[in-house]
């Protein structure tokens, strides 16, 4: 591998430059902020979510298309968000709303970057993080949104520095390297740091911003996992389930026997279940588009 100093192009962006450009990115949609606030309120009922979603006609239309898609197919069509919550449950509709809102915030990517493939990976990671929390007895709250947004920094790069991001991706594939190790050479930071900056600008919960920042740095151990540990392992699971993200030239190491108290057989079951979720994920993305 070449000396990283020799790889670093002139004019590589600095943190200050990124902070300035971040101000031009879309703000956190009001509906997502209200969803997060509702979820955080212990006294909120399932139907408290309905008026927040229904107030956004575009989001409502997108969600009803998803709920009435082939995957969720019902004997009768679901005509309202309230009906969707009754049929699918608060948790499922909330997750669908957060994913839909996130993907609609950044609808168009650079021509050379497959944004749909990133969204597929992000949704798979969100689902895997929740399943891991259930399997390990960890609290589920915050898992879906943290898994969903763990790679949002790649979207930041694709929007702010598309040419340099593509250079970093090509370099990672040439060197068979993790994209996170190449990004600082071309972009001044890795996507975890960029994602944290966006999460802080969006005023997301500190635990979510910290998890985005550390989803590669935290090494999962055999003790009680943190949220960042769960997201890190969920990310690795997506690659094992063929739902990884193409900017990486290498897949992260998969979970080992005994990690979080789970056997290899249990890990294989979780990964197989995640792989079997691909039709559901693709149905979601198809209905959204």
Structure summary:
This protein has 17 helices and no strands.
What does this structure look like?
This protein is an all-alpha fold and 289 residues long. The chain folds into 2 domains: 25-105, no CATH class; 109-289, Hypothetical protein af1432, CATH 1.10.3210. 63% of the residues lie in helices and 0% in strands. The protein contains 17 helices and no strands. Helix 6 crosses helix 7, helix 8 (115-136) packs across helix 17 (278-288) and helix 14 packs across helix 15. The protein is globular. The relative contact order is 0.14. The model is unreliable at 1-5 (pLDDT under 50).
How many strand units? Answer: 0
Reported by name, the CATH topology of the largest domain is Hypothetical protein af1432
Give the DSSP E fraction (strand runs of 2 or more residues): under 5%
What's the helical proportion of residues? 55-70%
User: Which spans of ≥5 residues are poorly predicted at pLDDT below 50?
Assistant: 1-5
Principal-axes shape call: globular
The number of helical runs is 17
Number of domains: 2
Summarize the biggest pleated sheet: none
CATH superfamily of the largest domain: Hypothetical protein af1432
Gap between N and C termini, in Å?
41 Å
CATH class descriptor name of the largest domain: Mainly Alpha
**What integer value in Å does the Rg equal?**
19 Å
Structural class: mainly alpha
Overall mean pLDDT stands at 86
Order of helices and strands: HHHHHHHHHHHHHHHHH
CATH architecture of the largest domain: Orthogonal Bundle
